[in-house]
Amino acid sequence: MLILIPPSETKAVPVASPPVELASLALPELAPVRTRLIKALARLARGRAPAALDALGLSESQAGELAHNRELLSAPAGLAAEVYTGVLYDALELPALHRRGVVTDQLLIFSGLWGVLRPGDRIPHYRCSAGVKLPALGSVSAAWRKALRAPLAAHAGDQLVVDLRSGAYAGLWVPGGNAVTVRVLHERESGGVVSRSVVSHFNKATKGRLTRTLLESGEQPAKPDEFAWLVRSLGYLVEPGPAGTRPDAPVALDIVVREL
C-alpha cells in the first residue's frame, strides 16, 4: 500500500543542521527537475519583491518567505516529518510515529518544489505551492506532471494507492486503476434535518488521523475492497463515493464524521 498526502503551507524552520542533499531524496532521478525549480525559485526571490510575492500568491506580511527561498541549497534542512506542520500533520503525528519505530516508508508527501518526499527526507523551509508559475519555467504543476509520470508508476507498481491528496496536488500524478480516493464528509443535524458537507478542518484532521492509524496497523491491503474493510475495522464510517467517469478511475470512498 502506498499512501499519498499533500504538503502543508505552514512549515517549521530547521536550525543547526546540514543543507539538503538532492540525491538522497525520494526518487533521486528527479534531481534535475528539482535543481531547475530551486534555481528558478531562488532567482524569483532575489528579484523585485512585489512581483515575487504575486507569483507565489503571498501577501506583503509574508515577505520573509522570500529570504528562505533565496538560500534553499545552503539553508539548514530537517526531516520532512518535522518541517511540515498544520492540521493534517498535527493529527498525523509523524515525529511520534518515528520515535515509536512505526514504519512510514509507504507514505509519500507531494510538493510543488520537491515533487514527492518520504517523511525521512531532509528539506529546508521553503514556499512554493503546486499552483505557482515560475518565470522562464512556467507552471510547477506542468513540470511535475511530466516528470513524475514514469518514475511514480514504476515505484507504485501493482501496490494499492491510497490517495488522500487535495487540490492541485492531486493533479501532479494520476494513479492507475488499483487506487482509492477518500473524501471526508462532516455530518450534522439542524432542526431535524441531516446535512453533509466537506469542511476543510474536518477533512485535514480526519485524513491525518486516518493515515496515522493505517501506519500503526501495519496492514497492507492490496485492493480497494480490502482497504474499505480495514478502514471500517479501524472505527470509521465508510460509504461508496461518487463513481468515476473513466474505466480505470480510482474507487471513491466517503468517510463520514460527526465530530473531531
TrEMBL record:
CC per GO annotation: cytosol
GO biological process: response to hydroperoxide
Protein name, UniProt field: Peroxide stress protein YaaA
Species per Swiss-Prot/TrEMBL record: Trebonia kvetii
InterPro entries, A to Z: YaaA
